[in-house]
Amino acid sequence: MFEPARGGQPLTTDDLRVFLRRLPTLDTAVSDAERVEQLSLLESVKHACAGAQAVVAVAFDASQREVQATAGVPARKRGRGVGAQVALARRESPSRGSRHLGLAKALTDELPHTGEHLRHGRVSEWRATVLARETACLHPDDRRAVDAALAIDLPTLSDRQVEARAKALAVQFDAASVVTRAAKARQDRRVWLRAAPDTMTYLTALLPVEQGVAAYAALHAAVGTVRATGDGAAPDARGDGQVMADTLVERVTGQATAAAVPLEVQLVMPADTLFATGPDGGPGDGVPASLPGGQVVPAAFARRLLADCADACEDTGTALALRRLFTNPDGSQLVAMDSRRRVFDGQLRRFLLVRDQTCRTPWCDAPIRHADHVVPDRAGGATSTPNGQGLCEACNHAKEAPGWSAATLDPGPSPADPHAPVHRVRTTTPTGHTYDSTAPPVLPARRPARRARGPAPTRRARGSAPTRSRHPWHENLITLTWADRHRTIDLLDSA
């Protein structure tokens, strides 16, 4: 497909660019036997590329640490931000970038045979990761011994076989370390939430085995209780899994029913979705809504969710609140607000959370933990929405490493300029590479419109009567208070 470098010269960056350009021209007008050979070779090339990335990452880490040492960075802080740069280059999240860098170091220093297999395309990056993970608790010498013991068979083993063999060898070489690792793992118990398809979500708990089994057994026992407490009424139509899920929500939240959620769920929906009207004001399904993290939900589902919450609030006497959000004319971006505070809190923080949805670092989908100044406060950066962005904790810490900088290129729409381009931030890494991040649409179905060209809008003469704006961001605004709850429920039911 491409000729090797003449005279045994190393592959250069230009060679990689040539290879990348030629790869789409691969000749597939061949026999099926050769197509299978192509698939096999391409898979080997993919693994070998991962091995080459590991070599480059280790060299980059060493170089960056030297640069930081020369700049006077304390030894304990050297290497900060390197994993984030690796992640940006690989178009992945910072956490994955750090894992890739850790694996690269292990393959170079402690698992040389596995690293050699990877660089020659004989094993996958995932299989190398499994071996590194199962031997991470061992002393470097024992780790090298496990690596040598598996060196011959590794290319022929499956993922599970690699995991089983590595575990067995780890126990053989240092059983005490394996036991200590298992005990330490109990300290990593945690709960996390992530989006699932079809307006669902995964609530996952990492627990010690006996606690996890006990929790599952208790939920399963609730199924028998529901089935055994029939009082002559219609039988419970829920399946076993549904009963267990509802019981989990009720016991964790203390609610009478799973549907009576008293917490604030940031469901973002335009007025035409709420009232099931079309763009022209006539009947229609409405624009899809969105949940935190940018998860899109159909308009009908959003109305049903709000109606269920309204019914639950009516039954329990709790409050249902609808908050207005002001968007630009095409409905894709929130407008700005300013603060004189040094930190982003209150409504200003809420604004950033709704606008940015997830961490603004490119390819990082982590939840927002920090409301960050693009230009730091110590450097004169304002506490305002143009100079604000939502970041995860790891990305915010990486941004503070020497050589990193950020600037707001486009401040985003505002009441004074609702047609302004989308909020855009440019991050510059210590190597001079730049990465742009734009705020996602608040409602993904509404893509940002291009800035219209034409005469500037005329200003209303002082003293003249105001005219009604034809902008959707004015027309679709509604104000519904708790006092109007009966009207709200009626409207939702009719929708």
Computed structural class: mainly alpha
The number of distinct β-strands equals: 9
Helical segment count: 17
What is the helix fraction of residues, given as a range? 40-55%
Gross morphology: globular
| Radius of gyration, taken over Cα atoms and rounded to an integer in Å | 28 Å
Mean pLDDT: 79
Order of helices and strands: HHHHHHHHHEEHHHEEHHEEHEEEHH
Strand order within the widest beta sheet? 7-8-9
pLDDT < 50 runs, ≥5 residues = 336-340, 451-495
Helix/strand layout:
Blueprint: H1 13-22, H2 32-70, H3 82-90, H4 94-109, H5 112-119, H6 125-134, H7 140-150, H8 159-173, H9 175-185, E1 190-196, E2 200-206, H10 209-228, H11 240-253, H12 271-274, E3 289-291, E4 295-297, H13 299-316, H14 346-356, E5 370-373, E6 388-391, H15 393-399, E7 405-410, E8 424-428, E9 434-438, H16 472-475, H17 485-494
Helix pairs in contact: 2-4, 2-5, 3-4, 4-5, 6-8, 7-8, 8-9, 10-11, 13-17
